[in-house]
Design brief:
By secondary structure, the protein is mainly α. The chain has one domain. The chain is built from 6 helices and no strands. Helix 1 runs antiparallel to helix 2 and helix 1 runs antiparallel to helix 6. The radius of gyration is 19 Å and the shape is elongated. The two termini are 15 Å apart. It comes from Maritalea myrionectae.
């Protein structure tokens, strides 16, 4: 079960990291267009700043799950590494449970948040804010799933996965 959870976690993380990389490339392109517009062509495009905001929100929210997959939270490592060996497993399982519950809570209430975005219009595009607001429940769901997979993968042990997200 642990190996399967590790493979699923690594696969999910692989996809999320690539999607975040695409979002970041689009963000760089969008900001570049905004700079060229402002200082070179003076088109006065109204959308680059808004698109940059939405791309940054989506990228930042989705990137959280990559940190979860690799257990790259420096504060948690510092806390857990100071605990006695026997207590580490309990602390880590407890933190995983609290983390899962937090992300599930954000997912559950984020659905309503995204739905309210569907009733609001973006000032520039005339589109609803459903897609930008959906970053909250979508990323929270991915983080909750990733937390569950990592907890099963590591089974409460303080183990840092390798570059592929697998525990050795």
């Amino acid at each position: 079960m642990s190996a399967l959870a590790g493979r699923l976690s690594a696969g999910l993380n692989w996809g999320v990291e690539r999607f975040v990389a695409i979002l970041m490339a689009l963000l760089v392109l969008d900001v570049w267009i905004g700079v060229v517009d402002r200082y070179l062509f003076h088109w006065q495009l109204p959308w680059p700043e808004v698109v940059a905001r939405y791309l940054m929100i989506w990228a930042a929210m989705l990137a959280i799950s990559a940190g979860i997959a690799r257990r790259e939270h420096i504060g948690l490592h510092a806390l857990i590494s100071k605990a006695p060996e026997g207590l580490r497993r309990i602390i880590l399982l407890g933190l995983d449970l609290v983390t899962f519950l937090l992300f599930f809570y954000v997912f559950w209430y984020g659905i309503g948040f995204a739905q309210t975005g569907g009733n609001r219009q973006a000032m520039i595009f005339g589109m609803t804010l459903l897609v930008p607001f959906a970053a909250i429940p979508v990323s929270a769901a991915i983080c909750a799933i990733q937390t569950l997979l990592v907890a099963i993968r590591d089974q409460g042990a303080l183990i840092v996965p390798n570059s592929e997200g697998m525990v050795e």
